[in-house]
Amino acid sequence: MSPNYQATASAPVNIAVIKYWGKRDTKLILPTNSSLSVTLDQDHLRSTTTSRADPKFTQDRLWLNGKVDEIKPDSRLETCITEMKRLRKKTVEDKDPKAPKLSTYHVHIASYNNFPTAAGLASSASGFAALVASLSHLYELPVDASTLSLISRQGSGSACRSLFGGFVAWQMGTKSDGSDSLAIQVAPESHWPEMHALICVVSDDKKGTSSTSGMQRTVETSPLLQHRIKNVVPERMEKMTRAIKDKDFDSFAKITMADSNQFHAVALDTEPPIFYMNDVSRAIIALIVEYNRLSRENGGRYKAAYTYDAGPNAVVYAPEANMKEIASLIIAYFPQKAGDFKDVLGLFGAEGAKDINK
Ligand code: ADP
Ligand code: DP6
Ligand code: CO
């Protein structure tokens, strides 16, 4: 009987506070600006992926949430799998002639998301991070998370940040081969454990415009994007990094909300315009703005920060001490059975992609 080559890994989603939106190279997935995110908790929104290599397999195959997902030639999936096999050959098989030649076997991969796929909750981020992490365990690659982030980036840009837990930057890089466009950890979760996130699922429908096609249209048509990438994001990256290092929630909140607003402004500046938020999303913004205004009017500080990805669902970052109040405010204003508002979940995360078993 042939040996069993199989490994399972999971990866959580990450939600950006400085948004990635725009590619300078669509094949390698090189972004037009750097970005920064927080990786959420493994327990709530995550992808779990099992990979198996077997000389008897006749082709590479993927099942997503139990359904066959075709691996098209030259697709991002194919690129990630090919790159992982190449890394196996280079870092293991070429060095040790006795190592099994797993890079020559086909793989079967099964992945499950425990939350809505393609609904603006970053399934492409956890999905491609978990895929790369599971192949890395299967192939026993002696490489670090930043090296793996170079490959998951080629599956979905935001996926490179889910290889790490805590606060993570994706440095856009300058090289045309993409070798310096990778993720680094700005600070581990343990640096700022009071930081929590509340996910408000306004809608779990599949979004109308995928991130990939939406951002491409923005690059082609939006003058505001050019201003954003040249004049706004570089300074925000520095200020956000400092806010995280100093655990300065006021600055974190101001930059997070400003960047979410500008990302959605850039989507609106696209031709034809893209609307990711809906009326419920905007009402949640109004609620958080008012909550902060009341606090600050009374000499207090910012208490919460909203951010929206390419979809209507809100993510609210806040110190844990405020979370109960925020959750009850949201539930009071958006009763779950009465409106669109589907779910409220408190979470925060730590670890990035992790090996589950072999
Ligand atoms: P989202 O907002 O959920 O990230 P995207 O439009 O960016 O939406 O990406 C959704 C796509 O990501 C899916 O259609 C699928 O191709 C891919 N994807 C999602 N989850 C996984 C997974 N677990 N494994 C592999 N690919 C995945
Ligand atoms: C709004 O990473 O999903 O969530 O690279 O084309 O797969 P592709 O796009 P994707 O875009 C994410 C956009 C965002 C912002 C962010 O996560 O930084
Ligand atoms: Co995505």
How does this model look, in words?
The protein is of the alpha+beta class. Helix content is 36%, strand content 23%. The protein has eight helices and 16 strands. Helix 1 (76-93) packs parallel to helix 2, helix 2 packs across helix 3 (145-152) and helix 5 runs antiparallel to helix 6 (249-268). The longest helix is centred in the middle third of the chain and has 24 residues, at 223-246. The two termini are 18 Å apart. Residues 337-352 have low confidence and may be disordered. It binds adenosine-5'-diphosphate (ADP), ligand DP6 and cobalt (II) ion. Ligand DP6 is lined by residues 16, 19-21, 29, 35, 122, 124, 156-158, 211-212, 309-310. Residues 16, 19-21, 29, 35, 122, 124, 156-158, 211-212, 309-310 line the site of ligand DP6.
